[in-house]
Structure formats: structure tokens, C-alpha cells
Amino acid sequence: MVKRSQGIGPRHTKILVYMERYQKKYGYPPAIREICEETEISSTSVVNYYLEQLEGWGYIKREKNISRGITIIKDAFNKLMDESINPLVEKVETLVRIPVVGRIVAGLPVPVPASDLAYFDPESAIDIARSMLPQREKMDDLFALEVQGESMIDAMVNDGDVIIMKKATEARNGEMVAVWLLDKDETTLKYFYHEGSKVRLQPANKTMQPIIIDDPKTIQIQGKVLMVVRRLPVVG
Predict the structure, then answer these.
(1) Can you say how many angstroms the Cα of residue 205 is from the centroid of all Cα atoms in its chain?
(2) Do residue 20 and residue 99 come from a single domain?
(3) pTM of the shown model
(4) 47: how many CB neighbours lie within 10 A of its CB?
(5) 155 pLDDT band (50/70/90 cuts)?
(6) DSSP 8-state code for residue 69
(7) CA–CA separation, 19 vs 79, rounded Å?
(8) Using CA atoms, how far apart are residues 29 and 23, in angstroms rounded to an integer?
(9) Alpha-carbon distance 199 to 173, whole Å?
(10) Which residue segment(s) compose the domain that 30 sits in?
(11) Is 91 a catalytic residue?
(12) What count of other Cβ atoms lies within 10 Å of the Cβ of residue 145?
């Protein structure tokens, strides 16, 4: 039974959330010094004080004399994250890490070398607030691509932006998709339109012409765009 206290606040919550994310990523809890750096607490003794409070309230369990010997009590943690149960706790946005797997050309299709999808380090990822993504989407179906080119600028997709994609093999008319042109070994990002026996890949740039695909079997839809993460201009 968790002994709640009005003393629990944003700093306690930030520590718990960081430990929970760290555990999921690495399979073991963080060291006190890592918690100190992540939460911008200047002293490990202060972190230890917060941990003692969290243990006393029933949110964590600590194994004495064991390095990284901290275990989060899942039921207590989940209840703490629910504002309806404890409105005194500042809401901490849940982030999800989406892998950035490569680049997609948003212009006239150009050949993509076999190494393109390995351009980014396997650990490359982008953190997105879970609330910004459709709740029904499975995180395992999502990936990210860096945009190269300007054919979709009228759709507010600019060169250097990152697009969050959902894996898909089919698309409806008007959806923005990543398409692989099998006969040319090329990739492109366009609006999709199935028109009779042909497919039109439409750019969102008035200066560019659509790509007409005579044989739909020569293209492969790889994903649909869910959202765009803007590239901020460099200042100074």
C-alpha cells in the first residue's frame, strides 16, 4: 500500500520517470550519479535523500550495498502517473524513441545506394511525446526518415525535416507516402493517387511535375507520414 504524501513533487517524479525509462532501455537501473546528471541535481547526497523519500512512500525498493540496486514498484509508479489519482503531481510527458533509419528524397527520385539505410548509426533515434501520436498506433510500426529535397514544401515538409512514418504497404488517395520505385531502384516522398490503371505521385511544389507510374506493380509503398518534426534554423 503506497503511503502518499503531498510532499511528492516534480523532482521526485522526474527521478522516477528517468529511472523507469533507463530501465527499459538498458535492462538495469541507473547509478545515482547518472540520476544526478539527468535531473540536474548538484549533489549525489541530495539524490539519495529523494530516493530515501521515494522508498519510504513505497515507490521504489532499494537493495543496500548493491550497485544500482533500485527497483521501481510498478503499481505505485503507474498510479503516480495518473493525474486523476494524484493531481498534486506535475504531469510528466511520456516520450517514445523512434529510430531514424535513413533519408528519403522529397524531390525528383534519385538512385539510393544500398548503404543509404545504414547512413545513420543504429542508435540514432528521435524522442516524440506519446500524446502527439495517434493512440491506436503501435510503436513497433513507427520509424523516422530525414527528408532530402523540396518537392513537398507546400505541405510544410522541408529539406532536413524528420518525418515520422507508419509502416504500410497500401495507401489511400491523397496520403503522403514513402515509395520505392522497384524498376529504378529509387525512392521518393509524394502524395499518392491511384487513377485507373496508373498511379500518380504528386509533389507539393508548384514548380515540379507529378510522376506518373504506368504499372503500379513497379512501386512499393513503404510507409505513411504521421507527422513532421521541423528542423529549426541555426541562429548565430
Answers:
(1) 27
(2) no
(3) 0.57
(4) 22
(5) very high
(6) -
(7) 16
(8) 5
(9) 10
(10) 10-80
(11) no
(12) 25
For residue 165 the three cell numbers come to 512514418
Judged by DSSP in three states, 188 sits in strand
Q: How confident is the model at residue 86 (pLDDT cuts 50, 70, 90)?
A: low
DSSP bridge pairs for 192: 201
Check 124, 190, 197, 198 and give the catalytic one. 190
DSSP structure class, residue 155 = G
Residues 114 and 28 in one domain: no
Residue 137 lies in a domain: yes
Q: Kindly name the residue from 24, 151, 166, 198 that is annotated as catalytic.
A: 151
190 among known catalytic residues: yes
Q: Is residue 5 part of a domain?
A: no
Q: Which residue has the higher pLDDT, 173 or 6?
A: 173
Q: Which three cell numbers stand for residue 219?
A: 512501386
Q: Which residues contact 160 (CB under 8 A, 6 or more apart)?
A: 146, 147, 148, 231
Q: Residue type for 138, please?
A: K
| Residue appearing with cell numbers 513497379 | 218
Whether residues 74 and 44 share a domain: the answer is yes
Q: Tell me: the pLDDT tens digits for 13-63?
A: 889 988 988 888 888 899 888 998 888 776 787 888 889 889 988 999 988
Model confidence pLDDT, tens digit, residues 87-146 = 545 555 566 778 888 888 877 666 654 434 444 454 577 777 777 777 777 788 888 888
Q: Which residues pair with 101 in a beta bridge?
A: none
What SS3 class is residue 178? strand
Tell me the HSE value of 131 on the side-chain side, using a 13 A CA sphere.
4
